[in-house]
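pipeline stage [seq->struct] | target=DUF4398 domain-containing protein | organism=Seohaeicola nanhaiensis | residues=97
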Amino acid sequence: MPLTRLASAALLALAACTQVPELGAVVPPDLRAAEYPQLIPLGPELSVPQDPTAEAERVSDNLNARVARLKRRAQALNEASVVDGATRTRMEEGVHP
């Protein structure tokens, strides 16, 4: 047990000797001169919704609409031709030595 205490004390003493870098040196001048961001009230964001069922339905509707948009976008990308006709013909002919 005394060896564990001695080792713990040595580690604590070693940690106390470390050099902590100055944080002011790493902040670029343009960030030093920047204004603080505008704070917004969190009350409405943290409050419990008045009607949780309606809130859940709204979130579900938004997610379903997003899924539909992403599926349409994926379908359009799958149907789009990236390679022009001449290049496609050349590719289909393959490489012949």
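stage status: PASS
auto-comment: The chain has five helices and no strands. The mean pLDDT is 85.
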